[in-house]
Design goal:
Elements: H1 2-14, E1 22-23, H2 24-31, H3 37-45, E2 58-59, H4 74-84, H5 97-100
Parallel strand pairs: 1-2
Helix pairs in contact: 1-2, 2-3
This protein binds a DNA duplex (13 and 13 nucleotides) through residues 2, 5-6, 23-25, 28, 33-45, 47-48, 55, 58-62, 65-70, 74-75, 78, 92.
DNA sequence: CTAATGACGTAGA
DNA sequence: ATCTACGCCATTA
């Protein structure tokens, strides 16, 4: 069903810890849909209503928050939330992915 | 089922 | 380093 994709994406985003960020491509890949970075963004577009979903920790491979979508002020809110968690943004508007990128682990294996 | 769209990504200028 | 063009995938019309 169409929710399968979104569900997989959400499951990965939920795993992203505070102070860390992940790219759409990485999330999609960890979710089991490699190359579906674009579709990943489409999925997160409706994810804003999710309460416990750290959607703001997902940014593009450029290290910048993505424009458009949700609302005109959404990007600013996202950046502010990340700053709150300790993610520093440069003057160019991008953060240091080398340092803040989350090392995701593939789900599917029970870690218990 | 086919066509158009979009919170992306990589390569080239 | 910045900007543009093409390709990718899932969703929606």
């Amino acid at each position: 069903m169409s929710l399968a994709f979104r569900d997989a994406i959400y499951r990965v985003v939920y795993q992203v810890p505070a102070g860390r960020v992940a790219t759409y491509g990485q999330v999609a890949e960890l979710a089991g849909y490699p190359g579906a970075a674009r579709a990943c963004g489409t999925a997160l577009r409706d994810a804003t209503r999710q309460p416990e979903l750290p959607w703001h920790r997902v940014i593009n491979a450029s290290g910048k928050v993505s424009p458009g979508g949700g609302g005109v002020g959404r990007p600013l809110v996202q950046r502010r939330l990340l700053e709150e968690e300790g993610v520093h943004f440069r003057a160019s508007g991008r953060c240091d992915l080398k340092r803040y990128r989350w090392k995701g682990q593939v789900i599917g294996l029970d870690e218990s």
